[in-house]
Design goal:
Length: about 250
Amino acid sequence: MLKTFSVTDIGKKRKLNQDYVFVSDKPVGNLPNIFIVADGMGGHNAGDYASKYTVETMRGEIEQSFEKSPVKILKKAIEAANAHIRKKAEEDENLAGMGTTVVAATCLNGKYLEVANVGDSRLYVVNDRRIEQITRDHSLVEEMVRMGGIDRESARCHPDKNIITRAIGAKDTVDVDFFNVELVPGDIVLMCSDGLTNMLEDGEIRRILGSRKDVEEKAEELVEAANNNGGKDNIAVIIIEPFADEVEND
């Protein structure tokens, strides 16, 4: 039995919260559970519309899908969301140019994680030894790191850090990355928007997640720490503890 908790926060600087999350530890369609983080972009209310509408479209598609493969289910759900966002942006000039990141995950048999990603929201696996970013950012700065133009540390505060190279709603077709992770006892899964990771170092995230506090307290402490460090953006956090019962029974 996994434990999970999610929270979003407007942060210290923004007037709107354009982050949106969805969590179900119960089956949705043919998936045993589903976790989604979306970080919207666009003027006025377009960004929060894009993130909310993307998540709701994905949820509906997953519920109705006849597919058995988690990858196919997630891929078709994200493609449907992209098509809907494009259509809505064409119909309403107030929504023109809107888009959103999305990172989605489902935990299979309690120990395998299937992950889909578009944009620069992230999924990490954290334990008492390390913190590992599973997803790869689709951003200009990440491309520069991969090409050797800048190092990882310089990337953290680069002025072009917010320029993303893939998003839901950006083009008629969407290119989705998939990752499969085998989890081991002690692993904790963190999904988040860049409003968290731009404000906190990996070591601080790992310290908070590694505490013996309840999953809800850990999520709230992450948000509080990001806000204490400036809170320059909206913050979205989902924490999943797949082996919570095993840890408690030790």
